[in-house]
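Section 5: illustrative case.
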């Protein structure tokens, strides 16, 4: 229980940080997130490569949270007509136009 309290305190402090992120920091975090997700997928596929019932079920169980998250994002995009962008820039200026959705970064080779 002490560990949970410690994690909650750290998480709460991170949520209340006063500094703002720059666009470059957001892009870097997005790329790191995509890279981490692709790494998880590669590891799951490598650990369960066959089309046996056991491997198929293991892949489904391990990758279902990613699939659920992607489904949620697809629904959000559909409701917002593809516009998943922050309304203001880091310096507080409004975004005049919303461009096309950016492509996901590719996995490092």
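Designed sequence:
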């Amino acid at each position: 229980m002490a560990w949970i309290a410690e994690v909650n305190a750290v998480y709460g402090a991170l949520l209340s940080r006063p500094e703002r992120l720059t666009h470059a920091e957001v892009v870097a975090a997005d790329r790191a997130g995509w890279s981490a997700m692709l790494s998880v997928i590669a590891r799951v596929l490598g650990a369960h490569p066959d089309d046996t019932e056991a491997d198929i079920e293991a892949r489904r169980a391990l990758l279902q949270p990613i699939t659920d998250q992607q489904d949620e994002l697809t629904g959000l995009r559909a409701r917002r007509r593809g516009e998943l962008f922050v309304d203001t820039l880091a310096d507080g200026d409004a975004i005049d136009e919303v461009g096309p959705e950016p492509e996901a970064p590719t996995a490092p080779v």
